[in-house]
Specification:
With 398 residues, the chain is α/β, with parallel strands linked by helices. It is built from 14 helices and 13 strands. Its cofactor is pyridoxal 5'-phosphate.
Amino acid sequence: MNLYSRLEAELELAKTNKVYNVIKILATGQSDVVKINDQQFLNMCSNNYLGFANDPITVNAVKEGIDLFGVGPGAVRTISGSYSIHEEFEQRLAKFKKVESTIVVQSGFQANTGLIPTITTEEDLIISDELNHASIIDGIRLSKASREVYKHCDMEDLERILVKHADKVKGNIFIISDAVFSMDGDIAPLPEINRLAKKYHAYTIADDAHGEGVLGNNGEGTIAHFGLEGKIDIEVGTLSKAFGLVGGFICGKASLIEYLKQRSRVFLFSSSLPASFCYAGIKILDELEKSNHRIHALWDNTRYLQNKFIADGYSIGTTKTPITPFMVYEEAIATDLTKVLFEHNILVSPIIYPTVQKGKARIRLMISALHTKDELDQVYQIITSEYQKLKTNKEENK
């Protein structure tokens, strides 16, 4: 079949199966309210947890950074694309995360694809949670290591795999997990993962994309939340969520970071993160260390909306974070409810198969420190009433 004929056929099939992703085009910056097609929409699907993406602090810092360092980096880090502000930001991040060293890269996705294949060999084994992010999965695919997958957050299954391989692996064993899972909002049992890793002489890697800026006293993340600083071997993070920027980073021992600078293809063959983002990153760290009022506002909003759902008998799954999955279970209801909410000027994200298992469809609500109680009341009233209408219509049409 002709390439383009096949692609077009697959796109049509996606539309028929109601899994075609219609991309919404925003005309404003990220906030609690955004503009689409000259209409105001309540934004319930942004990772802008603390509101930094469009905050004057961030905007002005990026402008100042551009004035100082220009726009593009001009080269990869190993040629002439390393600026003093890169090193300063990396040192500040390391201090914030309480690790020896940190390296910043172009995105959280590239952090995983630049880390995992670089530090593993064909003699190693990677053990991965079944619900890990796509960037972890792709990083594992790019590596030469053997791989096993354990049931989601199931420590008995993880130990079963460790017992099976502990005496057979010639190289190293790596246990990799999201710290906070983006589809469900649940938190990985990092203390137990760490205990098993030490018991079976494995190394731990935690991706805390949805934990930093959200968990910990000042947003240091999930590792700090559990008091595991210095115990998880490697942490991967992103600047694109709570930090409101773009970029990713890897934290760990100084020798690890130095090795990545010498060997990671992401670092060696892709232009560096713009210096202005590093400049803004330092300003954001200043804000987080100075005050945690944004984090308190985020959690106040989270408890407010989630408690309303729970009190009235609606399921929000196993979430322990601001990621709030309003469970509707059926794919058709999820897609139809998303359309209805859009008609009510509420922007949400439907999560359906194959992103989640069949029968586990949900509307993923992303709560922000910027949301007001009135906005959250509006979301609650409309999503619950429209969901009930769709369920009733489905029952009547059986």
